[in-house]
Write a structure and sequence with these properties.
The protein is mainly α and 165 residues long. The protein contains 8 helices and no strands. α2 runs antiparallel to α4 (42-56) and α5 runs antiparallel to α6.
């Protein structure tokens, strides 16, 4: 819900952008700013924009409260999940044979498990992130060391070419 609200809400609205919509008024005003300024039409364009906003969303406070509540609920669920993970770490820490590496491994398992339940494609991408092509990695490291080890034709510490100013 949160991502749809932030990212995908305005997809496909480009064909509905006419000169009487809020976006159309802004685009037309900005593209003809000299004409608007020289004809002193700023107040008229501002009034048209305000009216277009009222026509587009007659109850902006209610819709923005709904959007804010959805965003807050999304953040609450995420923070609650993190709090459960920290609590489970404290429970695991009470075991007698617990080391730091075991705790970190357990935390990684819990995080990946949480991601797997919420976003399976993203979880697969995170899991596959560590599986790199070894030959490509060696070739890249070779290129980096070649660049670092090469001798430059320009010696920045040389006194040649200095001029007394």
């Amino acid at each position: 819900m949160e991502m749809k609200m932030y990212m995908g809400e305005d997809e496909g609205d480009d064909e509905h952008l006419d000169e009487h919509s809020p976006g159309g008024i802004v685009i037309e005003t900005l593209s003809n700013i000299r004409t608007v300024a020289s004809s002193t039409l700023e107040e008229k364009r501002c009034a048209e924009y305000a009216q277009a906003l009222r026509d587009n969303d007659p109850h902006p406070i209610r819709s923005n409260m709904m959007k804010g509540s959805a965003a807050g609920l999304g953040q609450f669920v995420q923070m609650w999940g993190i709090a459960l993970m920290v609590r489970s770490l404290r429970l695991v820490n009470t075991l007698p044979s617990t080391t730091l590496s075991n705790l970190l491994f357990f935390l990684k398992l819990v995080l990946v498990g949480r991601l797997a339940t919420l976003q399976p494609p993203r979880c697969l991408a995170i899991a596959a992130h560590g599986a790199v092509n070894r030959d490509k990695a060696k070739l890249a490291a070779d290129r980096i060391f070649t660049l670092v080890d090469r001798q430059s034709e320009i010696d920045p510490l040389s006194d040649l070419g200095k001029k007394n100013l």
